[in-house]
Design goal:
Elements: E1 5-8, E2 15-19, H1 30-38, E3 42-46, H2 61-75, E4 78-83, H3 85-96, E5 101-107, H4 116-134, H5 139-149, H6 167-178, H7 184-187, E6 194-199, H8 205-214, E7 218-222, H9 228-231, H10 233-247
Parallel strand pairs: 2-3, 2-4, 4-5, 5-6, 6-7
Antiparallel strand pairs: 1-3
């Protein structure tokens, strides 16, 4: 398994691969992973490039997709789920490794960046990212990032003795990488089961609704905003467990 990944549960159980949002690490998935493991799922949470303890200094979709492929090869197959930037990685990975992906979960990752509102968001993200980079190691940036990500549990933060990439710099990197993407056509080339998760107070609900219709996906709304999948682990874990319980396939037992 990858050094920048954490595994939970029995490898003989169906696998769920979890990919975090920009600026976050694999530890953000700890409560979700523990609950899924208790419900007979094998869970692998993976740091994105330029995040957490990943050896790459900056984010790149190609590297992130290759990491998911390495996990799926080790586990034979699995459900791939991601939040925000992690969701955009998940959709690329689901297409690249389609034969090993039992299902795809996209949380806060349904924005059409080629629409007028999506282009505006991309322009703002691109303009803000160098500012975040410039102040990335300041106390102000740390406080701002805490406000942005909201309250999280202690077990969702990296341990004190683990050296990680600067989260503000990682966030800026992810913002640049996701801007102006044309993701909807990519999702349309994935033939497996798909679930789109969107917060009731999250922007671009019409995008989530339209994408779900275009790819014949389940659309599940959970109370809260874009931060809810990480801030409120129980709600998102229930969605993951329900979906994975329906579509995930356990690896073949050795003869």
């Amino acid at each position: 398994m990858l050094d920048h990944a954490s595994a939970f549960g029995d490898q003989r159980d169906p696998t769920v691969v979890l990919l975090p949002p920009a600026g976050a690490t694999r530890y953000a998935w700890t409560p979700h992973a523990r609950q899924l493991a208790a419900d007979d799922h094998h869970v692998v949470a993976v740091d994105l490039p330029g995040h957490g303890t990943h050896p790459d200094p900056s984010f790149a979709f190609e590297s992130a997709v290759a990491d998911v492929g390495a996990v799926l090869q080790a586990t034979e197959r699995g459900v791939v789920a991601g939040h925000s930037l992690g969701g955009y990685v998940a959709l690329h990975a689901a297409v690249a490794h389609q034969q090993r992906v039992d299902g795809l979960v996209l949380a806060g990752a349904a924005t059409d960046f080629r629409s007028v509102p999506g282009l505006a968001v991309s322009a703002v993200s691109t303009a803000l990212s160098p500012v975040i980079d410039a102040i990335g190691h300041s106390e102000r940036a740390t406080n701002w990032l805490d406000d942005l990500t909201g309250d999280v549990r202690d077990d969702q933060r990296p341990p004190d003795d683990v050296d990680t990439h600067n989260p503000a710099t990682a966030l800026a990197d992810g913002m640049r990488a996701s801007a102006f993407q044309d993701t909807w056509p990519i999702v349309e080339t994935y033939d497996g089961p798909t679930r789109i998760v969107h917060g009731t107070d999250e922007a671009f609900e019409s995008h989530a609704r339209e994408l779900a219709e275009r790819v014949d996906a389940d659309l599940v709304r959970i109370d809260g905003d874009h931060r809810t999948p990480i801030q409120h682990p129980d709600a998102f874990t229930d969605v993951l467990a329900d979906f994975a319980g329906d579509v995930a396939i356990a690896p073949l037992a050795p003869e």
